[in-house]
From TrEMBL:
Region (Disordered): 1-24, 186-256
Compositionally biased tracts (Pro residues): 7-17, 220-237
Protein name, as recorded: Uncharacterized protein
Domain of life (superkingdom): Bacteria
Length: 256
C-alpha cells in the first residue's frame, strides 16, 4: 500500500526589504536643505544680473532667474514630503528642520518679489521690446500669480505679508502693461491657438485663415486624379419574392 504524500506547506512570502534608517533619512533631508540654501544664493546672483542692462537681453536673463526660483520651490516641495514621511526616531529633528525649510521658503518668496519688482519696473520703460515679449511675459505672469498664492498662507500674515501681496499685484500689473504694448506673434498653424492670456488667435494659413475664432471653413473634397474614370454605381440588390407553399406542391415535386 502506497503512502500518500503529506500536503506541501505554502511558501513563506518574501521578507520585505529593510527601509532606510533614521540616520539616512536625516542626512537626505539635511542635504536637501543645503541644496536649497545654495539655490537661494544662486538666484540672488541671477536676479542681480537680470537688472543689469535691462534693455539688452534683460528678459532672457530674468527668465533664468525665474527658472531657478521654480526649481527651488519644486525641491522645497520634495523636502516637505520627506519631512512628512520622517520616522518617529527623528521626532526631535522634525521641528527644527521644518522651521529651517519655512525660513528658506520665505526668503525665496521675498527675493523673488523684490527681484521681479526691480526688473519689471525698469523693463516696463524699455522703448524697443524684442520679438516674442508678449509670449514670454505671459509665461512669467503665470509664475508671478503662482507665487502670489503662497502669500495667502498664514505664514505671511501681518504687515510684511500685506506689503508683499501688494507688491506682487503691482508686478502683475506691470507685466500686463508690457504685454499690451506688443502684439502676440502670428499663429502659423492651421487651427486657432490660445494665447498667453487665454485669447483665441486666428491662424494665418489653411482653410481657417483669418476667420473668427470658433468657426471653421468647410473643407473641399479632394480633386480627382486626371484620367481616372468615375466609379460605377453600385449594382441593384435583387428583390426577394416570398411565396406561400402548400403540402400538395411538395408532393408534386417528389413525383417528378
Amino acid at each position: 500500500m502506497m503512502r500518500s504524500n503529506p500536503p506541501r506547506r505554502p511558501a513563506a512570502p518574501p521578507a520585505p526589504s529593510p527601509g532606510r534608517s533614521a540616520a539616512q533619512r536625516q542626512r537626505e533631508i539635511a542635504t536637501l536643505l543645503m541644496r536649497l540654501d545654495a539655490m537661494l544664493k544662486q538666484s540672488a546672483e541671477l536676479a542681480q544680473t537680470a537688472r543689469e542692462r535691462v534693455s539688452v537681453g534683460g528678459l532672457a536673463r530674468y527668465r533664468r532667474f525665474s527658472r531657478r526660483v521654480r526649481d527651488f520651490f519644486a525641491l522645497a516641495a520634495l523636502a516637505q514630503e520627506r519631512l512628512d514621511a520622517a520616522p518617529e526616531e527623528m521626532e526631535d529633528l522634525i521641528d527644527p528642520m521644518t522651521t529651517a525649510l519655512e525660513r528658506l521658503h520665505a526668503r525665496m518668496v521675498v527675493q523673488f518679489v523684490e527681484g521681479s519688482a526691480g526688473f519689471f519696473s525698469s523693463f516696463a520703460r524699455v522703448k524697443a521690446l524684442p520679438i516674442g515679449t508678449h509670449e514670454m511675459c505671459g509665461v512669467e505672469l503665470r509664475g508671478v500669480l503662482e507665487i502670489r498664492k503662497f502669500l495667502d498662507d498664514p505664514l505671511y500674515e501681518g504687515e510684511r505679508g500685506q506689503a508683499l501681496r501688494a507688491e506682487t499685484d503691482r508686478i502683475a500689473a506691470l507685466i500686463r502693461r508690457v504685454m499690451d504694448r506688443i502684439p502676440p506673434l502670428p499663429d502659423f498653424g492651421d487651427e486657432p491657438s490660445i494665447g498667453p492670456r487665454g485669447t483665441l488667435n486666428s491662424p494665418l494659413k489653411g482653410p481657417n485663415a483669418h476667420m473668427p475664432p470658433g468657426r471653421s471653413a468647410a473643407r473641399p473634397a479632394p480633386p480627382r486624379p486626371a484620367g481616372m474614370q468615375p466609379a460605377a454605381p453600385p449594382a441593384p440588390t435583387p428583390s426577394t419574392e416570398v411565396r406561400s407553399l402548400s403540402l400538395d406542391q411538395f408532393e408534386d415535386d417528389e413525383d417528378e
